[in-house]
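Response to reviewer comment R2.3. The reviewers asked that we include at least one raw input/output pair. We reproduce the pair for 2-haloacid dehalogenase here without editing.
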Amino acid sequence: MPVPRPRALVFDVMGTVVDDVGGVREATVAALARRGDDEQAAIRVAAATATHLTELMRRVSSGDRPWASHRDLRAEAVRAAVSEVGLAPLDGGLVAQLVDVVETFKPWPDSAAGLDRLRTHRLVVALSNADPDELAFLSLTGGLAWHLALSTRPSQAFKPDPRAYEVAIDTLDLRPGQVMMVAAHVWDLRGAARLGLQTCYVQRPDEGPPPEDEFDLVVSDLLELADALGAPAR
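Raw output as returned:
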C-alpha cells in the first residue's frame, strides 16, 4: 500500500494523545475516597461517566437537546453516573473537581515526542470535543506542541457528527483528502472517513483492535506514525 502523504495531521486528543480513561478513573477514586465511598463503586462511576457523556454529546449533535458545552455536559454526566451507581449526590466542589480533571490528563509516553517530530514535517492540529479552555490547559500541562488546537465547539456538534470535522477542514482551507485524522477510536475515524479524510488508527489501551484493512495506516504509537510518514528523528 502506498504511504499516505497528507498535508495536515488532525489528532483526536482524548484517548489518542492523553489517557482520559485512566485520568478519570484515578481522579474519581481519589475524590470519592475522601468521603468514604468504596473504590469499586468509584471505578463504576468513572466508567458510567464516560457512557453518559457520550450519550449526551450524541443527543446534542442530533438536535434531541439544546446545545451545551463539553464542560457542562461532563458535569451532568458525573451527576448521572453517581446516581446510577447508587451513591449519595456529590457536592458542587467535587463535581467541579471531576470536571476540571480534563485539564490534567497525562499524555501517553510517546505523545509529546511523537508530536514534536511530526510538527517539523506536517501541519499538526488537535481536534477535540473538549472546550477551547480545556484543550488549552491540557496542552499546557501535557507539553503538547500543536500548530493549532481546535475545539469542535464552533460547530455546536460533537464528533463523529460531520459538522465537527468540518471545523478543521474549513479552518485549514484544505480538501478532505489532504487531511489525515489520527485517532484511537474506530467511531472517530469512521466519522472522518465519511467526509473523505485519510485515517490513521493508533493502538491504545482500553480500545479494541481495528477492523482489518479499514484505515490508511495502523500504528502502535505516534513515534511509529512519525517513522511511517518519514518525519526526521530529533
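The chain has a mean pLDDT of 95. The chain has nine helices and six strands. Further pairs are available on request from the corresponding author.
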